[in-house]
Design the sequence.
C-alpha cells in the first residue's frame, strides 16, 4: 500500500479536471495503487455532483449543444480501475496505453551507468513525461529542480535523504529542492517523472551534462 500521496490540493485539481494532462495522468496512475486516494477523489466527485444538481438550469445554444455532443465521440480519457491492483508487478492499464506495449518495447536513453530514461508522449506540450530506470543500488547524481516534478514509483523502490519509497508512492518536488535518489540494493527501480523544467546536476563532476538536459515535452 502506498505511504506517500498527492496532497489534497492536487487531488482536488485532478477531480475538477484542471490539472495539466501529463500531471493528471501521473495522479491517475497513483490511484491504481491507492484505495485511500481513490476514496477521496470519489467523495469529491459525489460532492461536486450534488452541488451541480442544485444549480439553476441554463439555456444553451444549438451550437454549444453540438460541441458537447461531438465530444462524446472522442477517445475515452485516461481512467483508473475502481479498485487498486492486486498484482503490484503488473503494469497499470493507463501506462500500457501510453507505452503501446511494455517496458521491454520502449526506447531507452542511457544517461549514466546507473540511469536510463524513456520518454513517453501524453500530448501535453508543457510537461515531460518519462520513465526512469535505475539499476539496483544505483544512484542518480545529486541535482536540483528548476521547476516542479511529480514522481511515482512503479516498480522496486528508492531512497533519498527524506525517506524510502516503494511501488505506488507519490512525491512532489518544487523548484530548488535538492536530492540524490538511490535505488534499493536488491531490485531495479522504475519511476515515472513528470517535469515542467529540466533537472540541474549540482556536483562539479556532473555539471558538464547540464547543457544537454533539455525538457522533452510532447
Sequence:
Amino acid at each position: 500500500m502506498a505511504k506517500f500521496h498527492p496532497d489534497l490540493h492536487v487531488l482536488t485539481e485532478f477531480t475538477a479536471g484542471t490539472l495539466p494532462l501529463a500531471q493528471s495522468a501521473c495522479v491517475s496512475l497513483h490511484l491504481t495503487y491507492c484505495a485511500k486516494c481513490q476514496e477521496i477523489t470519489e467523495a469529491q466527485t459525489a460532492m461536486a455532483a450534488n452541488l451541480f444538481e442544485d444549480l439553476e438550469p441554463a439555456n444553451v445554444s444549438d451550437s454549444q449543444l453540438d460541441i458537447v455532443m461531438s465530444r462524446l465521440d472522442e477517445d475515452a480519457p485516461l481512467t483508473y480501475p475502481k479498485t487498486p491492483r492486486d498484482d503490484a508487478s503488473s503494469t497499470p492499464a493507463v501506462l500500457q496505453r501510453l507505452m503501446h506495449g511494455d517496458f521491454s518495447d520502449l526506447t531507452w536513453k542511457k544517461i549514466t551507468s546507473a540511469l536510463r530514461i524513456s520518454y513517453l508522449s501524453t500530448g501535453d506540450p508543457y510537461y515531460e513525461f518519462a520513465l526512469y530506470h535505475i539499476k539496483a543500488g544505483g544512484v542518480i547524481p545529486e541535482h536540483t529542480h528548476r521547476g516542479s516534478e511529480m514522481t511515482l514509483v512503479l516498480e522496486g523502490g528508492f531512497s533519498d535523504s527524506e525517506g524510502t519509497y516503494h511501488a505506488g508512492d507519490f512525491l512532489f518536488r518544487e523548484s530548488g529542492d535538492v536530492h540524490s535518489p538511490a535505488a534499493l540494493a536488491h531490485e531495479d527501480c522504475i519511476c515515472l517523472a513528470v517535469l515542467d523544467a529540466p533537472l540541474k546536476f549540482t556536483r562539479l563532476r556532473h555539471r558538464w551534462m547540464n547543457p544537454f538536459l533539455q525538457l522533452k515535452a510532447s
Summary: The first helix runs from residue 8 to 16. The first strand starts at residue 109 and ends at 110.
